[in-house]
């Protein structure tokens, strides 16, 4: 009988929006979770900083001593406090003592994942982290397990709900960045300090995790090229619309193969124009979606709510059930796969395309001078459009694929041309062949 088995003892570190939902579901559905795992699950403690702020948690479970909870009689640690410390120290202590870990801590995994994996391997413990990227969307386990026999070439997605809401609203309303950010804050989509989201730090940490899993290579957040959305203007959005494109903040992780067969990994986060026909273009509001390209499986897309208490709790509980099942049958979950250890490709050597908007003089020879500069830098033009007259004259150029360094150098040289009054905007173009 399941109820006669020793319970799986679970400790929660942190009890915010996600932790509260995890605790509620475990307490509301004990028979259901016992049936799924093969043994009862018993929450033995909840570590928080301010117990009086958590009237929903039974008083006998509350503690402010997270270290004592981790070192006590417990089988699984569920870490939901976020940040690097004390989370890193607590999880290393747990793993080294053979306790399994479930975490949603993307920043910690992106910076210290290899250290945690090594500790788990040495002690024979599990570490699961589905909730660290894209909330409720089952994404990491497919990359880690379902596609383990395939060769993944590219992972591109929208992995931050705040920035997706802002850019989607700018596209639908024509409003500017600042006012849309304010509205996102009023609706609860943006934090009081939105820096981690709008400057791309959150997405970069997630990109590091995705690249590590997809390409069997250790990638940290510092390896990821990062740009945020604060410089995106209504003019950029309007320019994209004229080309039947929209603007999204994308996390792009890809395997790049040179002509000599040498492989490397590119990981980057930045705003980009994508065709409105692309599956990611229709992802609106605060939703997340990730597009995966694999050799055998082809194109796959994962879509859903990327944040929020209940959606993220769903991913945490899925991991908790997996860990508990392993404990019941004395099995182990998947280990770190970093056998490829491909080199990281600098952003300057990464192939991409640019959309460039120029404020130019309305006089003969403008287009020929601009085109000559592109030619001198071995960058070819895909689309060119001149519009307006006099003081309103402008030139829009979309390039073919070239290295980011060559494209950036070309833009810098164009800015020095006497016929160019200003480089109004530069944005990368993704999601279509060139």
Give a quick set of tags describing it.
about 425 residues; alpha/beta; Rossmann fold; 6-stranded parallel beta sheet; 3 domains; Alpha-Beta Plaits; 11-stranded mixed beta sheet; Dihydrodipicolinate Reductase, domain 2
Brief digest:
This is Homoserine dehydrogenase. This protein has 434 residues and is α/β, with parallel strands linked by helices. Helix content is 36%, strand content 26%.
Compile the SSE list and pairings:
Layout: E1 8-13, H1 17-28, H2 30-37, E2 41-47, E3 62-63, H3 66-71, E4 76-79, H4 87-96, E5 100-103, H5 106-123, E6 127-128, H6 140-146, E7 152-158, H7 161-173, H8 177-186, H9 195-198, H10 201-215, E8 225-226, H11 234-242, E9 245-257, E10 263-275, E11 287-294, E12 298-305, H12 309-328, E13 351-360, H13 366-376, E14 381-387, E15 394-399, E16 402-403, H14 404-415, E17 420-429
Parallel strand pairs: 1-2, 1-4, 2-3, 4-5, 5-6, 8-10, 10-17
Antiparallel strand pairs: 7-9, 7-11, 9-10, 11-12, 13-15, 13-16, 13-17, 14-15
Helix pairs in contact: 1-12, 4-5, 5-10, 7-8
Please, could you describe this protein's structure?
- The protein is an alpha/beta fold and 434 residues long.
- It folds into 3 domains: 2-135 and 309-329, 3-Layer(aba) Sandwich (Rossmann fold); 140-305, Dihydrodipicolinate Reductase, domain 2 (2-Layer Sandwich), CATH 3.30.360; 348-429, ACT domain (Alpha-Beta Plaits).
- The protein contains 14 helices and 17 strands.
- The strands form 2 sheets. Strands 7, 8, 9, 10, 11, 12, 13, 14, 15, 16 and 17 form an 11-stranded mixed beta sheet that branches.
- β4 (76-79), α4 (87-96) and β5 form a beta-alpha-beta unit.
- α4 packs parallel to α5 (106-123).
- The longest helix has 20 residues, at 309-328.
- The radius of gyration is 24 Å and the shape is elongated.
- The chain starts with 7 loop residues before the first strand and ends in a 5-residue tail after the last strand.
- The relative contact order is 0.13.
- The model has no long low-confidence stretch (mean pLDDT 93).
- It catalyses: L-homoserine + NADP(+) = L-aspartate 4-semialdehyde + NADPH + H(+); L-homoserine + NAD(+) = L-aspartate 4-semialdehyde + NADH + H(+).
- This is Homoserine dehydrogenase.
- Pathway: Amino-acid biosynthesis; L-methionine biosynthesis via de novo pathway; L-homoserine from L-aspartate: step 3/3; Amino-acid biosynthesis; L-threonine biosynthesis; L-threonine from L-aspartate: step 3/5.
């Amino acid at each position: 009988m399941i109820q006669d088995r020793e319970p799986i003892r679970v400790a929660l570190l942190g009890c915010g929006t996600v932790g509260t939902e995890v605790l509620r579901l475990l307490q509301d559905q004990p028979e259901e979770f016992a049936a799924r795992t093969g043994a009862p699950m018993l929450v033995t403690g909840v570590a928080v900083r301010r117990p009086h702020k958590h009237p929903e948690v039974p008083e006998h479970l509350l503690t402010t001593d997270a270290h004592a909870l981790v070192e006590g009689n417990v089988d699984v640690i569920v870490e939901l406090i976020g940040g690097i410390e004390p989370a890193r120290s607590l999880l290393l202590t747990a793993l080294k003592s053979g306790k399994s870990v479930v975490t949603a801590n993307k920043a910690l995994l992106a910076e210290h994942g290899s250290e945690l994996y090594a500790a788990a391997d040495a002690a024979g413990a599990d570490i699961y982290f589905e909730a660290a990227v894209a909330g409720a969307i089952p994404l990491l386990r497919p990359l880690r397990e379902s596609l383990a026999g395939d060769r993944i070439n590219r992972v591109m997605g929208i992995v931050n709900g705040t920035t997706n809401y802002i850019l989607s609203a700018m596209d639908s309303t024509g409003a500017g960045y600042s006012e849309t950010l304010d509205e996102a804050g009023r609706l609860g989509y943006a934090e009081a300090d939105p820096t981690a989201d709008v400057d791309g730090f959150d997405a970069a940490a997630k990109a590091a995790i995705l690249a590590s899993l997809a390409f069997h290579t250790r990638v940290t957040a510092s390896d990821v090229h990062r740009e945020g959305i604060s410089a995106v203007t209504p003019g950029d959005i309007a320019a994209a619309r004229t080309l039947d494109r929209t603007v999204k903040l994308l996390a792009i992780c890809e395997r790049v193969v040179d002509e000599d067969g040498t492989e490397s990994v590119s990981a980057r986060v930045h705003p980009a124009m994508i065709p409105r026909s692309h599956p990611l273009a229709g992802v609106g509001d605060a939703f997340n979606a990730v597009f995966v390209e694999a050799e055998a499986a082809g194109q796959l897309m994962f879509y859903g709510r990327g944040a929020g208490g209940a959606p993220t709790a769903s991913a945490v509980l899925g991991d908790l059930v997996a860990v508990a099942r392993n404990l019941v049958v004395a099995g182990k979950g998947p280990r770190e796969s970093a056998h490829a250890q491909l080199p990281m490709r600098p952003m300057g050597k990464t192939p991409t395309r640019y959309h460039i908007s120029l404020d130019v003089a309305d006089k003969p020879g403008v287009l020929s001078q601009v085109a000559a500069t592109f030619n001198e830098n071995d960058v070819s033009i895909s689309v060119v459009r001149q519009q307006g007259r006099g003081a309103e004259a402008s030139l829009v150029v979309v390039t073919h694929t070239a290295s980011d360094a060559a494209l950036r150098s070309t833009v810098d040289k164009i800015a020095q041309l006497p016929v160019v009054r200003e480089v109004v905007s530069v944005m990368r173009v993704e999601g279509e062949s060139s």
